[in-house]
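User: Hi! I'm working on a homework problem where we have to compare a predicted structure to a textbook description. Could you give me the structure for the chain below?
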Amino acid sequence: MAVLTFTDRGIYCPAGDFYIDPWRPVDRALITHGHADHARPGHARYLATEAAAPVMRHRLGEITLQTTPFETEIQIGDAKVSFHPAGHVPGSAQIRVEVAGETWVVSGDYKTDADGLSEPFAPVRCHAFITECTFGLPVFTWVPQAEITAEINAWWATNAAQGRASVLGAYALGKAQRILANLDASIGPILTHGAVENTNEILRAQGLDLPDTIRVNPDLDAKAHPGALVLATPSGLGTPWMRRFGPASTAFASGWMRLRGIRRRRAADRGFVMSDHADWPGLNTAIRETGAERVFVTHGYTSQFRRWLETQGYDARIVETEFEGESLETPEAEPAQ
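Assistant: Happy to help. Predicted structure tokens:
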């Protein structure tokens, strides 16, 4: 019997009678992180890391949620389970499942480069690895974070000097805080969309060090904060919500900005190549360090990445899931404001 099987509800462990990041309601769900395509409502019981729990409670409301520290083994039925840092967003985990001496790992979403905010990715040895491949093509290779944040700060400073606001679209959980933690706050005030600020407050309460921000609400006179940088959700750009900021330059922070034409299609002035998912070298390094012989690829360039892995000697297969990875067309679902 396989340690994990793939069903129409999600990734299932028969030995423990639980699912990992299921997309249909189940009795027991182990959740890798709080993004909406992985942490869905409707399950009877949830298990996640202690660091992921506050955001999950905020997004999902009253749920029955058990938490665990990283790298602590839990016995569930005949399966041994532990959560290990994925480096994707604060609290995100890979889930290790061992049954009768065979170990499988579900990566969730991950990145291998430390961002100074999330718990750094930790490779986990296993026999089979279920990996995302959102950016599973050689063209996707990220430059160091310090270079991107320097570009963002320079863009903001130029706009401020010219009397424009700088409106930057980024996911409300993870990306926005990663940017925020690296901004040069001396340039000007930092305004935030409500969904971003809700997450800021939760993560600050967990001890993350983020600079001061000002929530954008209906009473805010944005023009009283000249030269501000505005951290918006991707869905906020190009809507009437933007009008309150007056003259503004717009930008997106996404791995998709690596592709020519994406920024033009999104009608943004700038594109900053920053992703909370592993790039091509990161995916290959992560897989190699697991020591796995079998690799299941999901959400992303699955066909291309599978073929590449087969040329490298892996038993590689594609798994169909409802995970979305990083998308500009269907932005991260956010709580209503």
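For your comparison, note the following. Residues 145-161 form the longest helix (17 residues). The chain has a mean pLDDT of 93. Good luck with the assignment!
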